[in-house]
Structures are given as structure tokens and as C-alpha cells.
Design goal:
Length: about 100
């Protein structure tokens, strides 16, 4: 079964020579949410909700359902995967901040 994943960082097209899982059919999209630049210089999506005023541009990919766990491993413990509705109305997974305050 295919799943949709919204990406906004290292999984954007052209960033990596090789991706951790096969990524198919990239489509530009955005999520509305709260973002922060961490002390490490990385951009973190804190919340994916229409109650925040920031449009975070990115790409939605199709991936195989069984590849989600491998993608979780790639994203690591700094992120957790949640469901969101993108700006173009797609139901997709997205990785949000999981750092401890």
C-alpha cells in the first residue's frame, strides 16, 4: 500500500545522492504550522496545524507502507511522525520536532 510523506529538509529533491527509501512521484506542497530553527541550525516543524500562520514549503512523496519504519530510523529520535493535511488537501505523514525542552 502506498503512503504519502511530506518532507521539508534533507529529503527534498536534489539534496541527497541516495535516499534511505525509494521516494516516488514528488509533488510540491506545503503544511501550515509552527517552525523553529534549533541551536543546531536545523529547521524543526513543531506543530502541523492550521492554527499557525507559517506555510512551510516542501514536497509530498509516495512511499511503500513498509518503508515508513526505515524512514523513522533515518529521521531519528529528534523527530516523530504524525498525520497532517497538507495545504493542497493531501492526507500525509510528516515528521515534527521530538526534542526535549
Amino acid at each position: 500500500m502506498k503512503e504519502l510523506v511530506f518532507t521539508y529538509g534533507t529529503l527534498l529533491p536534489g539534496y541527497l545522492a541516495e535516499t534511505p527509501v525509494p521516494l516516488h512521484n514528488p509533488q510540491e506542497d506545503f503544511v501550515v504550522g509552527e517552525v523553529e530553527i534549533g541551536e543546531d541550525g536545523e529547521l524543526y516543524l513543531l506543530d502541523a496545524s492550521s492554527s499557525w500562520p507559517f506555510d512551510l514549503m516542501g514536497v509530498v512523496y509516495e512511499i511503500e507502507e513498509q518503508d515508513l519504519l526505515a524512514l523513522d530510523d533515518y529521521e531519528g529520535s529528534k523527530y516523530r511522525r504524525i498525520r497532517c493535511t497538507t495545504g493542497k488537501g493531501r492526507d500525509a505523514w510528516v515528521y515534527v520536532d521530538n526534542r526535549q525542552p
